[in-house]
UniProtKB/TrEMBL annotation:
It is found in: Cytoplasm; Nucleus. It holds the Pfam family ARD. Its cofactor is Fe(2+); Ni(2+). GO terms for biological process: L-methionine salvage from methylthioadenosine. HAMAP family: Salvage_MtnD_euk (MF_03154). Keywords: Amino-acid biosynthesis, Cytoplasm, Dioxygenase, Iron, Metal-binding, Methionine biosynthesis, Nickel, Nucleus, Oxidoreductase. Belongs to the acireductone dioxygenase (ARD) family. CDD domains: cupin_ARD (cd02232). Catalyzes 2 different reactions between oxygen and the acireductone 1,2-dihydroxy-3-keto-5-methylthiopentene (DHK-MTPene) depending upon the metal bound in the active site. Fe-containing acireductone dioxygenase (Fe-ARD) produces formate and 2-keto-4-methylthiobutyrate (KMTB), the alpha-ketoacid precursor of methionine in the methionine recycle pathway. Ni-containing acireductone dioxygenase (Ni-ARD) produces methylthiopropionate, carbon monoxide and formate, and does not lie on the methionine recycle pathway. Binds either 1 Fe or Ni cation per monomer. Iron-binding promotes an acireductone dioxygenase reaction producing 2-keto-4-methylthiobutyrate, while nickel-binding promotes an acireductone dioxygenase reaction producing 3-(methylsulfanyl)propanoate. InterPro entries: ARD (IPR004313), ARD_euk (IPR027496), RmlC-like_jellyroll (IPR014710), RmlC_Cupin_sf (IPR011051). It comes from Bicyclus anynana (Squinting bush brown butterfly). This is Acireductone dioxygenase. GO terms for cellular component: cytoplasm; nucleus; plasma membrane.
Length: 183
């Protein structure tokens, strides 16, 4: 089950939990309200037949999907690669991931530019809105297997911060100001 918390500012290993002292957790509804990040719980044992994922895909127009694995064995230059995932960036489209096995952290900025760490593991599906600054890291398990989804032809291009003038960023800031409304 997904958990989210505000991060400390320690710059040691990105794969550690980076809790504040004392820990400061955020519930899923609050996470949505303050960042627009959406969450779905998927049963990884039954998702191919239970219809839950199919309905989400249909409702949201996800027409493309593939699977990725990140691990020391599957990624050449693993240490460099995970540092590149950890560069703060945004996209012009949603970033949608369903974790099938393993685990990792998606970090997103809140409206006050504080980092929120979202711990994902099997069954967690998250939708990171376009225009939000974020980054990803493996955790100390160094393994994740996930599905990626996209509306139409996939574009995985990251725009590293600063990207404040991009329309996707401006749209996101507008939604943040107006308040996120459940889809
Ligand atoms: Fe991203």
């Amino acid at each position: 089950m997904v958990k989210a918390w505000y991060m400390d500012s320690d710059t040691n290993d990105q794969r550690l939990e980076h809790h504040r002292n004392p820990p400061q957790f955020i519930g899923l509804q609050d996470l949505y309200a303050i960042t627009g990040v959406e969450y779905f719980n998927i049963n990884v044992e039954t998702y191919t037949t239970d219809g839950v994922l199919e309905k989400i895909k249909k409702d949201r127009g996800y027409t493309y999907e593939d699977e990725i694995t990140c691990s020391k064995d599957s990624l050449p230059n693993y240490e460099e690669k995970i540092k590149s995932f950890y560069e703060e960036h945004l996209h012009t489209d949603e970033e949608i991931r369903l974790v099938l096995d393993g685990s990792g952290y998606f970090d997103v900025r809140d409206g006050d530019d504080q980092w929120i760490r979202i711990a994902v593991s099997a069954g967690d599906m998250i939708v990171i809105p376009s225009g939000i600054y974020h980054r990803f890291t493996l955790d100390t398990n160094n393994f994740i297997h996930a599905k990626r989804f996209f509306i139409g032809e996939p574009v995985w291009l990251p725009y590293n911060r600063p990207a404040d003038d991009m329309p996707a960023r401006q749209d996101y800031l507008h939604k943040l100001k107006e308040g996120f409304v459940a889809a």
